[in-house]
Amino acid sequence: MKKASAGLTFQLSREGIETRIGEMEKKIERLRSMYESFFMGVERIPPNTARREMNRLMLEMQQVPIGNASLRFRFQSLSQKWVLHMTYWNRTMREIEAGTFRRDVARTQRHLAERGGAITEEEALALGIPKNRVKAFVARHQRLSLKKTGTALPAAPGPTSAPPAPAGPTGGRAQPPPIPASARRSPSPDAVAVTPLPGLTDIDFESAYRRYLDAHKKLGREAEALPKDKIRARLGKQLPTILEDKKCDRVQLDVAVEGDKVRLRAWPADSKS
Q1: Labelling 50: which of 88, 120, 136, 180 has CA 20 to 30 A away?
Q2: Torsion of CA 182, 185, 188, 193, to 10 degrees
């Protein structure tokens, strides 16, 4: 394999491309089997290392010019299969973390149909639910059980248990006392106004952050992506300096992948007149 001097395009022979695609097809099938073993509880951790390696091969192969039509179609089909597998794996991982994985739920429903009540961690382990996801699953199931039975909700006082309200000056019911300031509900974080970013609209920021998350997903490094509020806080400190140094009024954000790292870069969108 030779690397061209003007860019990142690789030159491979027809036989080399066919061999590389064949190896990638075998690796995807092997990775699929490893994920299924993890979902069934045979493996304790997901195959993140093998997934990152496969994602690196896909990114490299996307830079190879494929002249043969049949090989080009074969690689396109392989790429589509890879995207579908990653979507399924990501969705299943989220279900496992939330305790809603359908295999675990179906297994528990069959057990509780005979016994009833909420499941315990010991019973979940006996049913074959892997130890590394038992706590999240049992906690969610217990919350649902309490919600159905209503035992988690305090009983409201009956109409005869409450003392009659004292009469007001005009003979009507007295007004309830004002709520103390210490007992008033504080506004939620979502209700707090977000400080605008200098030189960047919220629409452009949201679009760039979505591309930033997508780049992490393609690399199989979703856990390394920074939260939106941290990215926004960093930009709030950096953008004024960039606007001043570059003598511009607005900036645009680009997503760059350097090795196995994803970065957001700010570039001048226009110049000051």
Answers
A1: 136
A2: -70
DSSP 197: P
Distances 167 to 158, 170, 172, 175, 177 between C-alpha atoms, Å: 21, 8, 5, 9, 14
Query: Do you know the residue count of the chain?
Result: 273
Residue 62 per-residue DSSP state: T
Residue 10 pairs with which residues in a beta bridge?
3
In terms of C-beta distances under 8 Å and separation of at least 24 residues, what long-range contacts does 157-164 make, across chains too?
none
Other CB atoms within a 10 A radius of the CB of residue 235 amount to 21
pTM of the entire predicted model: 0.40
Q: How far apart are CA 152 and CA 147, in angstroms?
A: 7
Token pair 């006392």: residue = 177
Phi-psi label, residue 103: left if phi above 0, alpha if psi -120 to 50, beta otherwise: alpha
Reduced to 3 states (helix: H, G, I; strand: E, B; else coil), residue 17 is helix
Would you say 56 and 109 are in contact if contact means Cβ atoms under 8 Å apart?
Answer: no
Tens of pLDDT, residue by residue over 144-201, are 666 666 554 444 444 444 455 555 554 555 555 565 554 455 444 444 456 788 888 8
**How far out from the chain centre does Cα 77 lie?**
26
Taking CA atoms, 152 is separated from 25, 45, 144, 149, 216, in Å, by 52, 34, 10, 8, 40
CA 266 centroid distance within chain: 24
